[in-house]
Amino acid sequence: MFKVRITTMMGLALVLGLAGAARAQSPAVTIDDLTGLSLGNPPFTLGFSFTANVDAKVTALGIFDDRQDGLVDRYEMGLWDSVGNLMATTIVASGTSSPLTNQWRYSSISAVLLSAGAQYAVGGLYTTGNDPLIFPGLATNFAANPMITFGESRFAPGGALANPTSTGGSDPSYFGANMLISAVPEPGSMALLAGMLIPGAVLVYRRRKR
Hints:
Elements: H1 2-23, E1 26-27, E2 29-30, E3 44-52, E4 56-64, E5 75-81, E6 86-92, E7 100-101, E8 104-114, E9 119-126, E10 143-144, E11 148-157, E12 166-169, E13 177-183, H2 187-209
Antiparallel strand pairs: 1-13, 2-10, 3-9, 3-11, 4-8, 4-13, 5-6, 5-9, 7-8, 11-12
């Protein structure tokens, strides 16, 4: 009975562990820069386009916090699909109340599904130049999450949040905006893991009945 219980517990731990890994959130992009430069001619919605490499979900939108000591302004954030539909929006608060991950402060959203091969854009509305950001050609050790491919820097002029459709070039910049993403587990793989666990549970039940 003892060996069967151990097998069952190990199977359960494996299922839960892999499920947890699939839910793990990570930034869409990373850079080494801790400080940036102020925007001289606001207002703009600033961000970037990207393509999803796998089915994934966005769970939070964030804005770069220069020096990581709190934001001066609040920021309206948006996520758009390839035809300009606003899929999610949120507000990153001023100050330090929004959680900090690396150099970005994030606000959670209801999870938005990204489809492998589809293009999207993320952006944040800068109404002032109070909070510095990273401009084209200035990002140090830029890296994109393997779940996405960086497209191009994007912007849209104006004082209302807008899909940033104008290109700022291929240099990674306008950070600016970021997001937290996580993988969506394939239904077949989770069903297989669950199937591996069930026989062990049945064996425990039968042993106890004897």
